[in-house]
Structures are given as structure tokens and as C-alpha cells.
Design goal:
Helix content is about 0%, strand content about 50%. The chain starts with a strand and ends with a strand. It has no helices and 11 strands. It has strands spanning about 5, 10-15, 20-25, 35-40, 45-50, 60, 70-75, 80-85, 90-100, 115, 120-125.
Amino acid sequence: QVQLVESGGGLVQAGGSLRLSCTDSTRSFNVYAVGWFRQAPGKEREFVAAINWSADNTNYADSVKGRFIISRDNAQNTVYLQMNSLKPSDTAVYYCARLRAGTRYLPETPRLYDYWGQGAQVTVSE
């Protein structure tokens, strides 16, 4: 059974860094693209970044380009989100999600991702 688990969230000051991890126990995780989304209180879930299975294609939201880096280590069944130069506006619950099989691009639409983690809180203080 697919079960995504995020870790690495926490509290950081503005300008600081955090790295989120997303793991899955199933071996099939390595052949799927994975995305990161976030949801702040009172706001809709929004796309952050996505990476294909072979890590040679990525997609980023404009709001995080140049600050966040998505990567993966298939040997460890893990996808990472390195977050640098954090801003208070980055405060949200961050979710990783597995892209539906057969999707040949890296979409920003949440409904195209079929399995989701439970979320990790990231709080950036002034």
C-alpha cells in the first residue's frame, strides 16, 4: 500500500533554510513523478515543485524559483525539497504527492496526483 511520509518541517527565521523529505515504503515509488504542494490557513492548496522519476525534469512555482530545489534519491526511495531564503509567506503545511501513472508532464493541478502524505508544518518567523 502506498503511504507517503513527510519529515523535516519546523520553525525557522526568515532567511533560513529547511529540507523536507518524502519517503514511501513501496518500491514502485522510484518510477513515479512526485510533487510538493503547500497550504496556508484559509488558502487553497498550491503547487510548489515537481520532479520526474529520473530527476532530469523539474517544474517550480514562480514564487519559489531560485530559492527551492527539488531532488530525489531513488536508492533511498526519497524525494527532497531544499528550501532556502525562506520568507514568512512560505509558512504553510507542505505535502508531497505522487503523480498519476501515465501523465507525461509535471502538472501543477493537485487533482492529477493520486497519493498524498499527511503534511509537514513549516513556519517562518520574521
